[in-house]
TrEMBL record:
Keyword Membrane: yes
Membrane topology per record: Lipid-anchor
Species: Evansella alkalicola
Protein's UniProt keywords contain Cell membrane: yes
Gene3D superfamilies, alphabetized: 3.40.50.2300
Alphabetized SUPFAM superfamilies for the sequence: Periplasmic binding protein-like I
Protein name from the UniProt record: BMP family ABC transporter substrate-binding protein
C-alpha cells in the first residue's frame, strides 16, 4: 500500500513537545477517519491531541483521513516504529481493527470510541448519546410551531436519535418526529436533500446528527429561517438566531482523562461510558430565540438527571 504524506488521502502532523514527561509516555497518536477541518468530530479530536501535547508535555502524531483497513494497519505500524505507546482511533470503526492488532502490538494501548472491545491493552470510551439527544428533543418540542421535528442522522445505530424522539414525544404527545439516515457521516448532498424534503412537510426544527454534513445543513436551515440543534460542537457561532442549542461532546476533556489514567497506570481495558455527570457531555450555548424560562426548565431537567440518573419521564 502507498502512503501519501501531506495529501488529501493521508496527512500526517508531528507536533513536538519538549521531551519526556518523566512518567513513561513520550508519544501518543491518533487516527482520524476524515479531515480535521470538518468543524465537528474530527476537528475536536485534533484539538484534543493538541491539548494533550501541551498539558502532558508529550509528542503527538496525528493522521487524518484514515478509514480503510490498509491505511489503519499501515498507520499503526508507522506509529509503532515512531515509538508511540498510546493510540486513539477517533471513531467506532477502529474498534474491530484494534481488536485484530492488539496482540500484535502488546506494548501499545489502543483506545477507540463507541465500539465494543474486550481483552488486554484495548479500551473503548462511549459518550452517552441517548442522553444528549433526549434533552435536545425536549427543547425542540418546546420550540416548534408546527409540531414537526426532523432528524437527519448518519446511521441508525446512533443512540441520540432514539433519545431525541423519546424526549420530544414525552414532552408533547402531539409532536411528530421524522427521521432520515444518510448512511454516511459526510454526504452533505444527501443530507441537504432530506432537509428540503422535511421542510416541504412542515418540519421547523432540525437535528443534523452527522459530523461531516451538519454545517451544510445548518446553513440551509438558516437560509430558510428555521431552527436547528448543533451537533458534537457548540455551534452557536453558526447562527445565534438559528441554533437553539447544541449537543456537545467534550472530546478534549475525555482525551485528557484517558491520557492521565494511562500515565498513572489506571487506564482499564474494556468498555467505559461517560455522561453529563462526568462533564464530557453538555448542551451548548442557547440561541437568542430560546426564552429564559425554557432555558431554566431544560437546565433543571438536566440537573435532576445528573443527580438521580433518571430522565423526566422516569420521574413521573
Amino acid at each position: 500500500m502507498k502512503v501519501w504524506y501531506f495529501s488529501l488521502i493521508i496527512l500526517i502532523f508531528f507536533v513536538s513537545g519538549c521531551g519526556s514527561n518523566g512518567n513513561g509516555l513520550e508519544k501518543a497518536g491518533i487516527l482520524l477517519p476524515h479531515p480535521i477541518d470538518d468543524q465537528g468530530w474530527n476537528s475536536k479530536g485534533y484539538q484534543g491531541m493538541l491539548n494533550i501535547q501541551s498539558t502532558f508535555d508529550i509528542q503527538v502524531i496525528i493522521k487524518e483521513d484514515i478509514h480503510t483497513e490498509d491505511s489503519i494497519f499501515t498507520s499503526v505500524k508507522e506509529m509503532d516504529e515512531e515509538g508511540v505507546t498510546l493510540i486513539f482511533g477517533h471513531s467506532s470503526l477502529y474498534a474491530d481493527y484494534f481488536m485484530e492488532l492488539k496482540d500484535q502490538y502488546p506494548h501499545i494501548h489502543f483506545v477507540s470510541f463507541n465500539g465494543e472491545v474486550e481483552g488486554e491493552n484495548v479500551t473503548s470510551v462511549h459518550f452517552e448519546g441517548y442522553a444528549m439527544g433526549y434533552f435536545a428533543g425536549l427543547l425542540s418540542s418546546e420550540m416548534t410551531k408546527t409540531n414537526q421535528l426532523g432528524i437527519i442522522a448518519a446511521f441508525s445505530f446512533q443512540p441520540e436519535v432514539q433519545g431525541f424522539k423519546d424526549g420530544a414525544v414525552f414532552n408533547r404527545e402531539e409532536v411528530s418526529v421524522t427521521v432520515e439516515f444518510v448512511e454516511s457521516w459526510v454526504d452533505s448532498t444527501k443530507a441537504i436533500k432530506y432537509f428540503h424534503r422535511m421542510k416541504e412537510e412542515g418540519v421547523d426544527v432540525f437535528y443534523p446528527a452527522g459530523d461531516g454534513f451538519h454545517v451544510e445543513v445548518v446553513e440551509e436551515v438558516k437560509r430558510s429561517g428555521l431552527f436547528a440543534i448543533g451537533y458534537v460542537g457548540d455551534h452557536y457561532d453558526l447562527g445565534e438566531q438559528t441554533i437553539l442549542t447544541s449537543t456537545v461532546q467534550h472530546v478534549e476533556k475525555l482525551y485528557e482523562k484517558v491520557v492521565n489514567d494511562f500515565i498513572e497506570g489506571k487506564l482499564e481495558s474494556g468498555n467505559h461510558y461517560y455522561d453529563f455527570a462526568d462533564e464530557v457531555i453538555s448542551l451548548g450555548e442557547y440561541g437568542i430565540n430560546v426564552p429564559d424560562e425554557k432555558r431554566d426548565w431544560i437546565e433543571k431537567a438536566i440537573k435532576e438527571y445528573i443527580e438521580t440518573g433518571k430522565f423526566p419521564h422516569e420521574l413521573k
